[in-house]
Amino acid sequence: MSKKRVALTLILLIAISDISAKSHSATWRQATEKEMSALIPARAPVVNERIETEARTASGVTDGQGKFIAAVVLITAGYSAEGKYSHFFTTQVPIKIGDMDLKAGEYVFGYKRADDESLDVKFYQARNGNLLGSIKAQIGVKSGPIHSLLITPPNGDKFSVQIGRYAFECKLAG
User: Fold this and answer.
1) Can you tell me the distance from the alpha carbon of 141 to that of 166, in angstroms, rounded to the nearest whole number?
2) Is 7 a residue whose pLDDT tops 70?
3) Is residue 5 part of a domain?
4) Is residue 127 part of a domain?
5) What is the pLDDT of residue 8?
6) 39 in helix, strand or coil?
7) 144 has pLDDT over 50
8) CA pair distance 8, 74, nearest whole angstrom
9) Can you give the residue range of the structural domain that contains 157?
10) Burial class (CB in 10 A: 0-12, 13-18, 19+), 127
């Protein structure tokens, strides 16, 4: 073989392996409305109740390979969760939020204003209501659209959860 053919063959092999590697890596993106409606239950299982969710508030991300991180506002009026939980949160990959290591599973969280600049957000296991820990959500959005709930796609391994003007960082752990 000539040197040109060897060089072209090597370039072709490198290009093919690069394309193959990229197709197997996770590229996180915002989940579609259709994906969210298939993922988020109309009634979330919270301790011994099934609490209605507000589908239009659902937000989530996917790796494009069937794994999701998503949340939705709970309609807690009349349920024992009222005042304690406000959101249903599900993850299909391990994540870290502050000091909390969350395995794939279902969670709920609620928040209270800590001061003018932050919220105290508490996470619980959805199935039994056990407190897992808390994190401060800092005011971050000063202008532009305000979302009742927004999960941003991970950039590298970091992503954020926005509640109104407040947000907290999360990290992919797996």
Assistant:
1) 7
2) no
3) no
4) yes
5) 45
6) helix
7) yes
8) 58
9) 29-172
10) middle
Which residue, chain included where needed, has tokens 């290009």?
15
* Residue found by looking up tokens 């301790």 in the block: 47
pLDDT tens digits, residue range 19-62? 433 333 579 999 999 999 999 999 999 999 999 999 999 999 99
On whether the CB atoms of residues 70 and 59 are closer than 8 A, the answer is yes
**Rg of the chain on CA atoms, in Å:** 20
User: Would residue 6 count as lying in a domain?
Assistant: no
Distance CA 33, CA 70 (A): 12
- Is the full-model pTM beyond 0.85? no
**Domain-located, residue 65:** yes
**What is 58-81 written as a DSSP string?**
EEEEE-SSS-EEEEEEE--TTSTT
Q: How far apart are CA 105 and CA 166, in angstroms?
A: 24
- Number of domains within the chain: 1
